[in-house]
């Protein structure tokens, strides 16, 4: 088929690659001057980059008063909130002895390498903005504007990969009468423009955590205003590892399958076979105990795995850090614990709100550089802002970390009911367009990466278009069931309809339909592979071992590149839990 891809960020790049793997003809439209999406900056990422200008947008004009639809870009100091192992694609995995966090420019370089390796750039029409998508009897018509010239072109199918960062959400009740400077985090480049000023930061997401720290360090006074608490997850574990190293299938299944009475809607390795499930879980007990015993023997023999001398940010592992430049002190840790207790009022073990995988702002709260106000904004008048707890303060500037409007994520005839991607199959396949339209990249795992989710969505879509995968006939029923399940497990983040509680379970379900999920019997008959997949750190290379466009031994080798040394106690705990009463809480055993 001839397929239009809108957007050349990470989701668009992998969509082009997966579509071409299935033999489709692809044309990609992107409004930027180069590939990379929000990671690409025209002001610094050209072939001959000049000095970064943090106060300018892609056109070189001051962001104040410009078209804010065009200004969303990654800021100067940005580090990934998950490791490169999780942000990489399964057909071009990150190669390194340790999980590390890339900077904005490093990740952009990875995307360029990916595009070069697979000849993706030849499909991209840069500086070409899609303005309309029209459904026709035979497919879709794409209207685009390039250098002031408008063109229309017909396609058999479309994949919208432009992401959620389109129109900043600026409609914040209570700030209508504020006369100081108001900018959105999408315009933020660095903190210099706030030096010596009184600044109010509204909202807190992962990027907001960085902004709070940076602005707090240079501002005369800084207040963080929030209405609710997001679950905080430090990026560094045990001084030397990325926290996502602890994303383990057995743990995820225990948390979502056995710690809740809510019906589990997805299938896993064993499908719906009671016999397969029994054999699989029996193997998990045997192999889990064996893994723990082997680890104990290694320790007694003095053959423990060597620990890295650097943390995932490239800093010395000693003194220990929780995050980038965030010391692991009692005060910082207690602040995180207090924050998380407030974010999870029901005290459940299974988190039901989105995570903020960035705690770099915590020291700023502890040392008083930033003052927290969780009452919410009541109103404003001139430079004065009133809070609902009765306090008032004067500010020179307000920074909005308030996300983006959902309706602008879609275009033309490609609309989604209630602008809610949970009304699509698996968040991406449109039920009303006979498998010819997909919205790829609007899936945000609590803990995990968007790129691999987009890749698996694109693999699914590409096979639907090539006729090798049939869309389920009971699509509406499945969408309704999965939507209800997700809403249950994300109940504390009701506005974030793109959120999914588990990347692992979501991807395994997609892989099962695509045909690239490892068969249960293959795992049971191969103890080493079973232990790595079930008790080891999640690695998306598991989806390239079997099935279409697999990498065979190369994928297996990448899977084994990370030893299961830090999974030994998880293996023991989870093997015991398989035999525990369903109502037993994991903390009763661990």
TrEMBL record:
Residues 41-67 are annotated as: Disordered. Keywords: FAD, Flavoprotein, NADP, Oxidoreductase. Pfam families: FMO-like, NAD_binding_8. Belongs to the FAD-binding monooxygenase family. InterPro entries: FAD/NAD-bd_sf (IPR036188), Flavin_mOase (IPR000960), Flavin_mOase-like (IPR020946), FMO-like (IPR050346). This is NAD(P)-binding protein.
């Amino acid at each position: 088929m001839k397929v239009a891809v809108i957007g050349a960020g990470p989701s668009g790049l992998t969509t082009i690659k997966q579509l071409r793997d299935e033999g489709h003809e692809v044309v990609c439209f992107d409004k930027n001057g180069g590939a990379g999406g929000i990671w690409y900056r025209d002001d610094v990422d050209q072939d001959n980059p000049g000095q970064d200008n943090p106060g300018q947008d892609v056109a070189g004009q001051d962001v104040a008063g410009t078209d804010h639809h065009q200004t969303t870009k990654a800021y100067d100091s940005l580090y990934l909130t998950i490791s490169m192992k999780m942000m990489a694609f399964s057909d071009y995995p990150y190669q390194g002895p340790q999980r590390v966090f890339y900077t904005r420019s490093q990740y952009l370089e990875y995307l360029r390498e990916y595009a070069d390796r697979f000849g993706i750039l030849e499909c991209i029409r840069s500086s070409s903005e899609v303005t309309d998508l029209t459904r026709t009897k035979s497919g879709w018509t794409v209207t685009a504007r390039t250098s002031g010239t408008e063109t229309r072109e017909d396609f058999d199918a479309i994949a919208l990969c432009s992401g959620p960062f389109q129109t900043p959400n600026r409609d914040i009740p209570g700030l209508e009468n504020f006369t100081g400077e108001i900018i959105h985090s999408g315009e933020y480049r660095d903190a210099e423009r706030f030096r010596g000023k009184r600044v109010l930061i509204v909202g807190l997401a992962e990027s907001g955590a960085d902004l709070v720290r940076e602005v707090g360090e240079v501002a005369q006074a800084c207040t963080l205003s929030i209405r609710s608490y997001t679950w905080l997850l430090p990026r560094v574990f045990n001084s030397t590892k990325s926290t996502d190293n602890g994303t383990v299938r057995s743990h995820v299944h225990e948390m979502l399958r056995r710690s809740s009475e809510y019906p589990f809607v997805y299938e896993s390795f064993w499908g719906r076979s009671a016999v397969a499930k029994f054999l699989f879980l029996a193997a998990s007990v045997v192999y889990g105990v064996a893994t723990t015993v082997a680890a104990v023997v290694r320790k007694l023999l003095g053959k423990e795995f060597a620990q890295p001398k650097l943390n995932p940010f490239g800093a010395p592992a000693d003194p220990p850090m929780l995050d980038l430049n965030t010391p692991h002190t009692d005060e910082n840790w207690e602040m995180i614990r207090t924050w998380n207790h407030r974010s999870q009022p029901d005290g459940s073990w299974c988190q039901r709100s989105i995570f903020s995988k960035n705690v770099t702002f915590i020291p700023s709260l502890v040392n008083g550089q930033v003052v927290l106000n969780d009452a919410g904004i009541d109103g404003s008048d001139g430079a004065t802002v009133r809070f609902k707890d009765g306090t008032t303060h004067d500010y020179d500037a307000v920074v909005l970390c308030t996300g983006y409007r959902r309706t602008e994520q879609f275009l033309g005839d490609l609309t989604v009911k209630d602008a809610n991607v949970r009304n699509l199959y698996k968040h991406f396949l449109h039920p009303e367009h006979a498998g010819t339209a997909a919205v790829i990249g609007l899936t945000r795992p609590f803990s995990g990466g968007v790129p691999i989710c987009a890749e698996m969505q694109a693999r699914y879509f590409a096979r639907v278009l090539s006729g090798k995968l049939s869309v389920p006939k009971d699509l509406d029923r499945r969408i309704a069931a999965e939507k209800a399940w997700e809403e249950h497990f994300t109940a504390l983040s009701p506005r974030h309809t793109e959120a999914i509680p588990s990347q692992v379970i979501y991807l395994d379900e997609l892989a099962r339909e695509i045909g690239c999920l490892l068969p249960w019997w293959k795992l049971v008959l191969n103890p080493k592979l079973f232990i790595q997949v079930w008790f080891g750190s999640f690695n998306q290379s598991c989806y390239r071992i079997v099935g279409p466009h697999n990498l065979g031994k190369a994928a297996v080798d990448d899977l084994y590149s990370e030893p299961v040394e830090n999974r030994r106690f998880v293996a023991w705990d989870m093997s015991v839990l398989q035999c525990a009463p369903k109502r037993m809480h994991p903390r009763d055993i661990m």
